[in-house]
Amino acid sequence: MQPLRFVSLRRPGSSFFGSLAAFFLSLAALAHAEPQTRRYLYLSTPDGAQTEGRSGDGILIFDIDAGHKFVRRIDIPIFKEGLRGFTGCAKTRCVYYSTTNRRLGCFDLEKEKVLWERTYEAGCDRSSITPDGKKIYVPTGWWYAGEDSGFLVVSGEDGKLLKRIEVGPQAHNSIASLDGRLVYLGTRTMLSVFDTGDEKPVRQIKEVGETGIFPYTVDSRNRIAYVCLGAHIGFDVVDLEAGKVLHRVLAGQEPIPHRTHGAGLTPDGAELWISDQVGRKLFIFDAAKMPPEPKGQVELSEGGHGWVCFSLDGRYAWCHTPDVFEVKTRKLAATLKDENGKPVSSSKFIEVHFKDGKVVEMGNEFGLGRR
After folding, report:
1. CATH 3.30.70.2470 is right for the domain spanning 38-362
2. What is the dihedral of CA 35, 39, 42, 43, to 10 degrees?
């Protein structure tokens, strides 16, 4: 074994401490010269599904690593129609918004301008986009129960309608899988899975969620879905490969008789959080066990539409209220406030990472398992 060698920082004619100071100054200069990745929460307002927490028309930006401090707002007047969906794509560096007035639009995050907008005869509810940015899947809306209710398949490049797929009544929430192979759609008491290559159905699972079809989430392997219940606080555990409900799990000591609207897996898949928006709570379950077992709950500052998802690193939980929770401690970490100090909230938001002015990574509006 070679003996340890120590390199002297002393220069001829200079003190040791002077050399040491110069050394650390050079390190600081080097660190400053390299661009850092900055993490932001982009929150769209007003939420078309809740009146709580509204603050103008557009996008509010919060610095995740500075205590979720308000940074600035981007005014987008058309948002006054009310947001029904807000999804993003790191490859295109854009977010895609849908509004109550059947409008779908694309907003460039780097140029900060609307690239295109279109309205359709049907739609637009909570849409999703494939990771390559080529296809947007637009549900025709929970409010529409016609026989042709289902998906609009739209070009991510310009919003052109590519095809329409009939699925079932009240097409509501859609999720494009993180690997880009599948897209999920919730309709009335049915969860459908489609192949994004040809839009052919892979599987349709009926009689899920008690009544209606509300938010859901899927694990990283696209094997298990957790579907919110429509008449109680709880969820169905669905085997996506077998096409059947494995378990129905209720929150609380006694059944809580109102709907669940929000389900999110932590990125590591270890915990499932669900929303009790009427009771102003988020219930937490151990997703490593089957069926998932209760682990605790957190109290919310207000009611609202219901939603829950997580930062990409799994540190923070965001929901439909101004409350930001630290996942590990379950303590309140921050309160989202606008430039006037008013608490703000929405169920339409997304995490965006910038480096040297360029979008380098983006989260998902759903709390999806990632590992």
Report:
1. no
2. -150
Structure tokens at 270: 């270890």
User: Using one digit for the tens of pLDDT, what is the confidence trace for 94-129?
Assistant: 999 999 999 999 999 999 999 999 999 998 999 999
Please name every residue paired with 124 in a beta bridge, in sequence order, or none if there are none: none
325 DSSP β-pair partners: 317, 332
Interstrand relation of 216-218 and 201-206 (parallel, antiparallel or unpaired): unpaired
Neighbouring residues of 257: CB distance < 8 A, sequence distance ≥ 6:
231, 232
CA 71, CA 63: separation in Å to the nearest integer? 6
pLDDT at 9 over 50: no
Can you tell me whether residue 6 is helix, strand or coil?
Answer: coil
**C-alpha pair distances (Å), 346 with each of 15, 68, 191:** 58, 15, 25
| Residues sharing a CB contact under 8 Å with residue 254, sequence separation 6 or more, in sequence order | none
Distance of CA 145 to the CA centre of its chain: 26
- Contact at 8 Å (CB) between 185 and 176? no
pLDDT of residue 214: 87
Q: What would the pLDDT profile of 148-195 be if each residue is shown by its tens digit?
A: 999 999 999 999 999 999 999 999 999 999 999 999 999 999 999 999
Please give the C-alpha separations between residue 136 and each of 53, 100, 245, 311, 321, in angstroms, as whole numbers: 28, 17, 28, 23, 27
HSE of 134 in the Cβ direction (CA atoms, 13 Å)? Answer: 5
